[in-house]
Amino acid sequence: MATKVHVGMETEMNGNGVPETFKNNWKKRLIEFSGKMKRSPGWLWRTIWKVGREDPRRMIHAFKVGLSLTLVSLLYLMEPLFKGIGTNAIWAVMTVVVVLEFTAGATLCKGLNRGLGTVLAGSLAFLIEFIATKSGKVFRAVFIGAAVFLIGTTATYMRFFPYIKKNYDYGVVIFLLTFNLITVSSYRVENVLKIAHDRFYTIVIGCGICLFMSLLVFPIWSGEDLHNSTVGKLEGLAKSIEACVNEYFNDSELKENQEKSSEDPIYKGYKAVLDSKSTDETLALYASWEPRHSRHCYRFPWQQYVKVGAVLRQFGYTVVALHGCLLTEIQTPRSVRALFKDPCIRLAGEVTKALMELANSIRNRRHCSPGILSDHLHEALQDLNTAIKSQPRLFLGSNNNQANNMLALAAAHAARHNKPENDRHGVSLSSVKTDSSALMEWKTKRASEQAKENERKVLRPQLSKIAITSLEFSEALPFAAFASLLVEIVARLDNVIEEVEELGRIACYKEYNPEDDEIIVKCEKPPVDVAKNQLPTHASD
């Protein structure tokens, strides 16, 4: 049976009046859904394995959270504990869920913020309740409303203070929540004091379980994560530079990597550096809350790690530009690149060695080697300079050819402007026709003009590329940019070394000893401005 649905369109119907196309679509969807359901167990297992393999501590943290929730649930499950606390035990469960974080520093920060906010809010609420009870019922309602408005406005505005927002924002939120719950409920509830006490005790129990799990059961330190991430960023940049220079001078086609830039090891090396700003600041904040847990009996300058990360990001931008030289449309011929291969590879190798030495010095908490900038680095720079000077025609070109090119361009420009108006625009006047053949001719001509215009748009980029490559010195321009960025990397290496040495001086790194026979600690008092920039180690600061 065929039913016309629209002019020029027909659809087939089955015996039940359902279109065949809809039926086929539903069959395809069911088949696709069943296939996804069959593949989901394997996908889920691969995801679980991948997440755990990337960082095995994630599995440990998951078990810690599960064990903490089990312990705090005993307040409900055990009859003696439930009789003593009652339904307020749910606040302990909520505290564990909210406070227990991946690292000890994050748990300490949220736990102490929650405890401090609860104590301050409870004390202020009871003070307002004591004053309000001495007055009449109407004045009491007005006083409570005015207090809620004033305290809420003041506390919310204080959240915009940079220091408060950075260190105690969560504590201010808990302060507002607890203060409003106690103050407003006290107007209707008679026994609000006992309820507040029970909630406070359950919150203390939840925070205590969280701190116990974070500090004593397989602790994960934010300071160690920040320390190791700094080492990893230095090593990633070193690998990126070495791989980038080696790939630039090898014999393989460079354009094959354009479609695989996200999987490129060069890209992976500097990506972690460019995306590290917020992570470094967060880890430094949490690390400042952590106690002195290691054999180092002094406090590490975590903010100096943030400064090192900022310098590495500036260094990484140059590596990104260097990697872009591999993906440009116009490339220097391999025969020209081969003239400068040896000094460039040696220069990149020396930069890589310096970065690896910096990474090892931070990993082992020791000062850098005195010969981190060896004579080989300066020799490679001199050799590169000499190689470039020995090929002046590649970069400057011939004056006679440049003059000829200028004359040719001027002649073409004059010829274009001397054309008649009609020829310049490609328009020819046709005789006027009034019959239907004139309309068909006009349509045919318009279609051909549109096809030519589309072809012209497609060829315009190619013609631009041909015009650029026709310049005599264009073959050397891509390599000039590559060599300039390589020299810029060497220049920015001094800033990285300076910040790492400052980190070692403030953090009292041991002196460099190639044989590691003894540990000599050289400690200087940090400057006043660095000490002021340090974050507090406990909430009372």
TrEMBL record:
Signal peptide: none annotated. Its main location: membrane. It comes from the Eukaryota. One of its GO terms (cellular component) is membrane. The keyword Membrane applies. It holds the Pfam family ALMT. Belongs to the aromatic acid exporter (TC 2.A.85) family. The chain crosses the membrane at residues 59-77, 89-108, 138-158, 170-188, 200-221. It comes from Gossypium laxum. It is a multi-pass membrane protein. One of its GO terms (biological process) is malate transport. PANTHER family: ALUMINUM-ACTIVATED MALATE TRANSPORTER 10 (PTHR31086). It is found in: Membrane. This is Aluminum-activated malate transporter 12-like. Keywords: Ion channel, Ion transport, Membrane, Transmembrane, Transmembrane helix, Transport. The lineage of its organism: Eukaryota, Viridiplantae, Streptophyta, Embryophyta, Tracheophyta.
